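Re: export button greyed out
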Amino acid sequence: MTGLTPKSKTPRRAIPPQERSHEVDHPSSPVAEFGIDKPLRLDCGVDLAPFQIAYQTYGELNADKSNAILVCHALTGDQHVANRHPMTGKPGWWETMVGPGRPLDTSRYFIICSNVIGGCMGSTGPASLNPATGKVWGLDFPIITIPDMVRAQAMLIDYLGIETLFAVVGGSMGGMQVLQWTAAYPERVFSALPIACATRHSAQNIAFHELGRQAVMADPDWDHGRYADKAVHPHRGLAVARMAAHITYLSDAALHRKFGRRMQDRELPTFSFDADFQVESYLRYQGSSFVERFDANAYLYLTRAMDYFDIAADHDGVLTAAFRGIETRFCVVSFTSDWLFPTAESRALVHALNASSARVSFAEIETDKGHDAFLLDVPEFFDIAHAFLESAGKARGLNEPGE
Amino acid sequence: MTGLTPKSKTPRRAIPPQERSHEVDHPSSPVAEFGIDKPLRLDCGVDLAPFQIAYQTYGELNADKSNAILVCHALTGDQHVANRHPMTGKPGWWETMVGPGRPLDTSRYFIICSNVIGGCMGSTGPASLNPATGKVWGLDFPIITIPDMVRAQAMLIDYLGIETLFAVVGGSMGGMQVLQWTAAYPERVFSALPIACATRHSAQNIAFHELGRQAVMADPDWDHGRYADKAVHPHRGLAVARMAAHITYLSDAALHRKFGRRMQDRELPTFSFDADFQVESYLRYQGSSFVERFDANAYLYLTRAMDYFDIAADHDGVLTAAFRGIETRFCVVSFTSDWLFPTAESRALVHALNASSARVSFAEIETDKGHDAFLLDVPEFFDIAHAFLESAGKARGLNEPGE
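Workaround output, generated via the alternate export path:
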């Protein structure tokens, strides 16, 4: 989720569990609380209640509530799209995309982003306190799915008094949520911008996720998910999982361009297991910084949700059936060097949308930045997002700024 | 290193260290011992002595010693190319390629394969006993390189009384050794068959290896490499490393064809972290079976050797210089779906060989089997290897069988 600049910082200490758990249960962003009378019906059969959804908003909702855009975050993202992160102190994860004058222009649109259900930044998840026991949920938390995340978001949108979203936008796991929104609530989504995603998780992607989960579970501090009881965190296993995932977010070409075989602060090999190569140092940093802000069990749950995602399977294996008669305008975006969600996946989606007679445009953007491109500075991508929302805004009758 | 058939076996117990260590120091194959008067000069500056090389041979050396083929094994391979493995009981790792009537025809050629220096199947490595301490070497073992492996093999070939090898053959890390043989001892290599390899390790490949090493080192049982003193083995970390590597050996297409999103012994998801998907079950099996036969520290050392490999760097950055004036006949082979060592890497090698006026043929073989293709049943690959050795044999004046 971060840029490619290699950092040679030594890994910092793991954040104490009590600091992380504060943001889990008492987030620094607004929270929508749903009581036992408003359960979230989960795909696994459980009614989750009570639960809470932590969210952020930017910009103003207009009088007829027609300018709301829901941003859906990716696996390790959160609701802090365009504000300083309360734990890391870093800028929001999509400030290139969301802000005044940006494609998701906060002077024109009302932007909403919520932490997904199952996450660890204020929405109820495995790191939250289980009211039935007074202890952290851990693996007692029910398995959640992408449709569950979207069902919870729909309850939040109801709570905010919004009937129809002008747009739903997201990349990677966020893109899966965008697609699920259009399949589950087509009448509530005026336009949809699914980026660098797929209608189902591939075998290779499941394999990488399973690798990450096994890395977490191999850490003795994971302790079958009950680490919070002992105030420890399986940071070694989670760091390894993050390193594995991070390689998949980049392209071979980007790694070659940024690091190649260059050595870290030296010219000759040390003939040791030190991080001789810059790419090693970079990966270690990615692993160690991630564990300070993310919960290991949440990582298990969210990767599992992505693995289970398969829109066609919910429609007797026929993808077209998921989008039949849909009025939503789509703009599907992929990146040439994204090997985690390759263009072929987006193309299959576009074919299904075409077969459903949906309004769809498709852009494959040339870049060597890999899957991470959707989070990076890719002007062509911003131009496409801007133009799509501009055009959809006209169709929606949204006013120009200052009018 | 194994086929793609999913296994649903439950992970077996880790093999007791004393069983593994028996094969390390007292292998069931022949051993060439080199005393303190015959040190192995390592690139890191250390003279390793004494040391031993465990090897296997198949077929008969002819009277003028002109029919010897050296097979170089890959990262987790060993000398047991075409005989039952002494620890796993499985067939040799390249029985499709080596045997009577196979491309490396044991009725015509004398096939030699030795466990690499730094390995754990009988050649001296970090799992061996350090004669200076009476304890297992662990991380006190010096860092080894691909040139070191080849230098040790050259000493073995001397020991066997062979001046010139008819061919040197290998895939992946084995292919790196083939290239190093031709760069270091061009006059001793009549023909060379480097398969699915490169003249240097890419940033992405270094990243995957670093991930594997970090997974091993994250296991508390690794204990800074001193696990043998406590008769434990960091099998959890090593299994995770193996899972990561295994994903890179396959292609997305092969995973899709073999597993897709099919469930393991069920039709509906369990909504749990069980191995619902066949691909998860397969990966877990790959991890757990690997740790029974391989030493964790050896895995660190051999991945490090691959990372350091860069033939051009040893020739002032000019790859062509490594092969100037070489008389060796080359056949370079790559596989279309190999993303670990993509065809572009082989093509760069072929260009350098062409620029050096070397005799070189090049085959890119169409297959969806990924990097693992060189170990699998790919008839076109066998045909090419057979034809190349046939033609080289004629040039070498080797007799036909039965003549």
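Residues 1-14 of chain A have pLDDT under 50 and may be disordered. The button fix ships in the next patch.
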